[in-house]
Amino acid sequence: MLEFKNYLKEKIHKLLKEKYPLNLSELEISYTPQQKMGDLALTFPVQLAKNMKKEPRKLALEIIPLLSSLEGVEKIEAAGPGYINLFLEREKFFSGQLHSIGQTSLSPEEEKIIIEHTNINPNKAAHIGHLRNACLGDTLGRCLKYKGENVEIQNYIDDTGVQVADVVFGFMELEKKSLSQIKEIKEKFDYYCWDLYVRVSSYLENNPQAETRKSEILKKIEEGKNPEHETAHHISRRIIKAHLQTMGRIGVNYDLLPCESSILHLKFWEKAFSLLKEKKAISFVKEGENKGCWVMYLEDESEKEKIIVRSDGTVTYVGKDIAYQLWKFGLLEEDFYYEPFFKEDGKIVWISTTTPEKESPSFGKGSQVYNVIDTRQAYLQKIVVQGLKSLKFLAQAKKSTHFSYEMVALSPKSLKELNLRVSEEDKEKDFLEVSGRKGLGVKADDLLDRLEEKALAEVEKRNPELSENLKKETAHKIASGALRYFMLKFALNSIIVFDFEEALSFEGETGPYLQYTFVRINSIFRKLKEREGFEEKDIQTLLSSERIPLEKLSESEPANFWDLVLYASQFEEEVLHSIRSMEFSHLAKYSFTLCQKFNAYYHLYSILAEENKDMKRIRILTIYYIREVLKRALSLMGIPQPELM
RNA sequence: ACGCCUGUAGCUCAGGGGAUAGAGCGACGGACUCCGGAUCCGUAGGUCGCAGGUUCGAAUCCUGUCAGGCGUGCCA
Questions:
Q1: Which residues from 460-479 of A have any strand B atom under 7 Å from their CB?
Q2: Does the ipTM surpass 0.90?
Q3: Domain regions of chain A by residue span
């Protein structure tokens, strides 16, 4: 449809530009609210009439005869306040759609796009908040790749930060464990650290004098070559592996893990610092409360300046982030070294190091960068972009996108279910922020376990004859699909107040509903093969042989057929729309509606039992078309496609 | 105090100038001897927070206002 609309726009513009003041960009083509009004609606006459001081409806009627040469259009009508509605030639359109399956009319616009997502502190297990981030980032990546873009996924690891230091403190000071003792811990390590981190946080709150030791640990971790550093390194690497495994469960993976430790040791910041000073992007404060600091002034003068380098000479988090952002664009004249870290499905995830390695791919040097971080980081992201602007990297500043979304919070009901204790003050609230520090959160693996357990029970109920392995594999796919759809279906601005019952649902607007639809279609094809020996390759014969006699359809079928096909044809428009608006709930909603339309159709018209050959052929082609579109939609959302369920 | 976001059906949310405001859940009532009931069909349920304004047209844009959330660290 995207391609067809582009053709229409250009053609209409060409036909009308002599007579009317009309811009190609203003020529929006939308859909009619009802099939009987036609398929596509041109709304421009209303606006045009205003500019020309004419009556809209008259203008529409005046224009219609000029459009008679549009290909693929059967009928044109004036409608409503002055719209021009187009009726498409159905057979031609449907046939065209079938023949172009597998081709895309989207095309890349960038040299290379870098997406940074997940970014979990490597000191505890991943939780539901991290899952939202990963699902969004991963889906963005999948959609951009579908569009043809060259995409690199980075997962930034803050392996030298205070959060890791906290857990090092816990092991060394609270548990008095040596590194070898830590290595011997057999329990799920990210869970172990989750609890320890909570203990440390409350200990530090009650024992402020311990901060001295913590600062010392932090410093030693940065310095390297000491027990604190070794411990931190062990913890972070082991937890990163746990995170990669967790994310692997829902089909999320990465190309590169850039580490803060590498940024420190390779002196990325020093390079960025001299650049910032050289271009006068930051200034040294001699007077006042920020005396001795290097600060950046914001474009928006109402906002106060942001400290980049503290009066003791240490750099803040944003400072390091500016250096990292510069590197992503290839603007730093410095690079990491890389080594393989983890293998997944034969694909290597690389990690940054400080020592040269024999062979490694090239990373960074993006022409566009997306940072997937929740909305609470909006201020800091703004400063990172300001940094680029101040350095006169205006093009890169424009191509730096904060992919912002609201947080995941916990409902009071979920808290109760988790047996988490909450302060009196927090009890009053409608929802509670997830907090690793307080241990308030649903661990990602726990949620996935529960989803898999429930899915397995459902599979067991329906397909008891399957092998154990197949049951488990199917349950895993359903669990993953349920979670991914759940994380995608909310608009970015919407806070997800997490509720178990809702998240564990497999009915209604859920991932499994979409998967079920897909399974049903495949089931028809499986039966066609079993009963009639009809195979996939026969679809191609059906397609190429003769025309599709839509006139053989009767009663309500033409309308239902056309409604379904026309909607399915909008897939690529939806993908593009989702990318442009960075709102993947559009894609989720679209896929759901497509399934609803299919399921309604499915209940009305049978395929296997249909005796009329022409009708059967049309229906087979229809469900084939829907399956192909649905397949692509699911894969863009990272929702697995089970054989059965 | 300032900045950003949110307020739509009992609940969770779509729709973000255009034709009759939609889903899911929950409630109630139904569905094929037939391709999978994780499905489908129907009924009830709405002053789109409130008040102004712009427009041929406003849930949508603007202003004000009320309510809630999140930011505004020499934390990360």
A1: 462-463, 474, 478
A2: yes
A3: 2-88, 113-405, 410-504, 511-636
